[in-house]
Amino acid sequence: MIIHRFRFTAIRLRPLRRFTPRPQCRLNSTSTSPIAGQDVPASSPLAGVTAQLDQLAPRIDLSADQIEVLDGPVEFYETLKKKIRGARRRIYLATLYIGKTEHEFVSTIHEALAQTPDLKVSILTDALRGTREDPEPSCASLLTSLLTSFPDRVEVRMYHTPNLTGFRKRFVPRRINEGWGLQHIKLYGIDDEVILSGANLSSDYFTNRQDRYHVFSSRRVTDYFARIHHA
Predict the structure, then answer these.
(1) List 103, 184, 204, 214, catalytic entry
(2) Letter string b/e over residues 159-176, b meaning 16 or more CB atoms within 10 A of that residue's CB
């Protein structure tokens, strides 16, 4: 077990494991409910392209009503909180960082865990960005309340790039050291739905910083990205 210690708090992290890249998932949307594995007609100009893509990556066919595009940051935040409150089995959140002042967001996760005994939460952030402000309040210190209250149902993992070690790690200033590599995946999975976005979990992304927000209501898609999250 790796333990990163901060002033007044300690974050428990799982041991780092070697990451093996997995095939990418190609989502194929149709206007009507498709038959799983349905092929593009040979007469279509896209037939050759899709055939080549199928050789490179798995395909998950979705109907249009399984995809929702959110309009802006406020809707993204409210949708995320609503889905967290309704979670029954799992929540997994992969992001660069959670804003150090996002007490409302963390409280929403805390309330969901308190209301649903079978719910489990997994959070993945970047170690350098998540501890940038240490020993002052940071993403890492913010998440300690979840670990303290639900030690058996919450895991917090912070990815540290293997490119920053030794003298580099010791002497390169904070913020600048993030140039050696970060965990930058943005996946927000709740039960059998997942939000793919470029937004981090902080106040500017919840209020006025526009990004992309696609909600996929599919267990296969959510399971696929869960495997990436837990790799």
Answers:
(1) 184
(2) bbbeebeeeeeeeeeeee
Q: What pLDDT is stored for residue 82 in this prediction?
A: 98
What CA–CA distance (Å, rounded) separates 148 from 196? 29
The pair phi, psi for residue 56, each rounded to 5°, is -100, -30
The residue with tokens 């007609």 is: 41
Active-site option among 54, 134, 191, 211:
191
Q: For 173-225, what is each residue's pLDDT tens digit?
A: 888 988 999 999 999 999 999 999 999 999 999 999 999 999 999 999 999 99
Full-model pTM? 0.79
Q: What tens digit of pLDDT does each residue of 88-137 get?
A: 999 999 999 999 999 999 999 999 999 999 999 999 999 999 999 888 89
191 in catalytic set: yes
How far apart, in Å, are the Cα atoms of 75 and each of 70, 110, 114, 151, 215? 6, 21, 25, 31, 12
Distance between first and last Cα of the chain: 17
Q: Which amino acid is at 2?
A: I
Q: Which residues contact 167 (CB under 8 A, 6 or more apart)?
A: none
Q: Write phi, then psi, for 30 (nearest 5 degrees).
A: -125, 160
CB 76 within 8 A of CB 105: no
Catalytic residue at 4?
Answer: no
